[in-house]
Amino acid sequence: MSKAFIAAVIQDSIDCTGVAANQAASDLISAIVKELKKEGGFTLPSFGTFTVKKTKARKALNPRTGEPVKVKAGKTVRFKASPNLKKAV
């Protein structure tokens, strides 16, 4: 799924211009990112739950050279599908 796909669905759904649909898609994506930063996650009731998880610093291997590399601690987004989504798919 891409931003263009979301904009096309919005445009078809509410019969607006492509520019307005693209702006709505951008606003939706930025609102999701803002909520993840602020609250650490959010839920779409019949879709699933997005949560921010911290990752620990670790050692990994460079696939080209096989040399050990240090990977810094960071954050990642995890998704858990709702039972309704699992049944639909």
TrEMBL record:
- Return the Pfam families for the record: Bac_DNA_binding (PF00216)
User: Which GO CC annotations does the UniProt entry carry?
Assistant: cytosol
Q: What is this protein called?
A: HU family DNA-binding protein
Which UniProt keywords are given for this protein, alphabetically ordered? Answer: DNA condensation, DNA-binding
Keyword DNA-binding appears in the UniProt entry: yes
Q: Name one GO molecular function term.
A: DNA binding
Q: What is the lineage of its organism?
A: Bacteria, Pseudomonadati, Pseudomonadota, Alphaproteobacteria, Acetobacterales
Organism listed in the record = Gluconacetobacter sacchari
TM regions (residue ranges):
none
One BP term from GO: chromosome condensation
Protein family according to the UniProt entry: Belongs to the bacterial histone-like protein family.
InterPro entries tied to this protein = Hist_DNA-bd, IHF-like_DNA-bd_dom_sf
